[in-house]
Amino acid sequence: MSLTRVQSFCVSLDGYGTGEGQSHEAPFGHAGDRLHEWMFATRRWRETGGQPGGNGGVDDAFVQLHDPGVGAEIMGAGKFGHPGWHEDPEWKGAWGPNPPFHTPTFILTHHPRASIEMEGGTTYHFIDASPAEALDMAREAADGKDVRIGGGVTVIRDFLAAGLIDHMHLVVVPILLGRGVRLWDGLEGLEENYEIESVSSPSGVTHMTFTRAGL
Amino acid sequence: MSLTRVQSFCVSLDGYGTGEGQSHEAPFGHAGDRLHEWMFATRRWRETGGQPGGNGGVDDAFVQLHDPGVGAEIMGAGKFGHPGWHEDPEWKGAWGPNPPFHTPTFILTHHPRASIEMEGGTTYHFIDASPAEALDMAREAADGKDVRIGGGVTVIRDFLAAGLIDHMHLVVVPILLGRGVRLWDGLEGLEENYEIESVSSPSGVTHMTFTRAGL
Predict the structure, then answer these.
(1) Where would I find the Bacterial bifunctional deaminase-reductase C-terminal domain in this sequence (chains A, B) (predicted)?
(2) Is there a contact between B62 and B8 (Cβ–Cβ < 8 Å)?
(3) Is the C or the N end of chain A the one with fewer CB within 10 Å?
(4) Interval A71-98: pLDDT, tens
(5) CB environment A68-85: b (16+ within 10 A), e (fewer)
């Protein structure tokens, strides 16, 4: 069964998935790296960056789940690049020549353009579509594997609101950002549709998993 | 050293300390009992109500910390009684003839009245004061013991914003209330002043402790 999944999506204790003032230099605004420091310390993350060491505990266990079994990703325009990227027809995204997706990757944008094949298996497709339409396309591309909903905040929220997420791994980071984009708005009662587990990590973050009831 | 403490204050995953529509019948509004069910299942809670059984795990361990060492409580008018209670001069609070505080208890209100001595050691004092002024009074009454800040939401937030809380035990309950009174507004960067620990419980809640740095 092909699942629609969220992996390692980080929110502050006050529910912000990104800070205020996002830009090319500061993709998470005034949050800086604070939502993701726990991740950078894991063995898996360091390995991906060619570095030795890193912790191999519960944080690493969850980071290890990011890629296996995933056949396509859907992301928002803001994850693909800084505001205004669509005005540059040569722009190939913020993720370098060999992006870390390695699958068909669908970018939700009101400015579609021709698909771009990158190194390492990532092909960017630019679509102006509803969450359900995007999921149909991504699921077909995933060829039986899972579809990862990669963010940003409003994309996760829209897919949750549309009832399209089967499994979500959320990481609550004990900081108060105070401003930015909030994940939880308009999702009252979401817990009724999910089995929820929480496990805190020695790093200070709490991992939460939302598994669709009856799955 | 006399500490200023918060114990077992519950918030939803989206940061609400109470739901919308608070009334005499529904003190937490549309949240009902959902923020406190974990607490009702503990041994300590059941013992207080004269019932046998209950769980004796981490939830109970934290509930057990509510009273020992506390010499006074400060609470908001909304915890004392339903909106409009001050219009009834005979009203003695929502907590019965033998309230569960057993210490001097300071009620923040714009409608002060004479103090009321209740059964079991609780004396209600009604004060129109700033957080710092209220804390001075409560600390003197606590006679070397700790002062508990009992809520509601805006009282906790005001004391946090004023930098007056030494230790806070917060319980994050995995529900999305969507509306009500939010705890975290205006507290950006609060984590810089505290050592924070998180521990998740088999009941599904996550206990967080905030201990003032350098304490």
Answers:
(1) 9-189
(2) yes
(3) N
(4) 999 999 999 998 889 999 899 999 999 9
(5) eebbbbbbbbbbbbbeeb
Q: Which residues pair with A199 in a beta bridge?
A: A207
Residue B189 DSSP code: T
pLDDT tens digits along A154-203: 999 999 999 999 999 999 999 999 999 999 999 999 999 999 999 999 99
* A177 → chain B, closest CA residue: B188
- Is the pLDDT reported for residue B156 higher than 90? yes
CA-based nearest distance B141→chain A, Å: 33
**According to the model, what pLDDT value does residue B190 have?**
98
Domains and CATH numbers, chain A: 4-212 (3.40.430.10)
Q: Give the per-residue pLDDT at A66.
A: 96
SS3 A5: strand
SS (H, E, C) A116-153: EECHHHCEEEEECCCHHHHHHHHHHHHCCCEEEECCCH
- Which amino acid makes up residue B80? F
- The tokens of B29 are what? 């509004």
Torsion region of A131: left, alpha or beta (phi above 0 gives left; psi -120 to 50 gives alpha):
alpha
Does residue A144 sit at the B interface (CB-CB below 8 Å)? no
Predicted confidence band of residue B83 (pLDDT cuts 50, 70, 90): confident
Chain B residues with beta carbon closer than 8 angstroms to that of A184: 13-15, 176, 178
**Per-residue DSSP letters for B16-61?**
EEE-SS--SS-TTGGGTTTTTHHHHTBHHHHHHTT----B-SHHHH
**Contact: A200, B200; criterion CB under 8 Å:** yes
pLDDT in tens, A110-127: 999 999 999 999 999 999
Burial profile B178-188: b = 16 or more Cβ within 10 angstroms, e = fewer: bebbbbbeebb
Task: Provide the ipTM.
Answer: 0.94
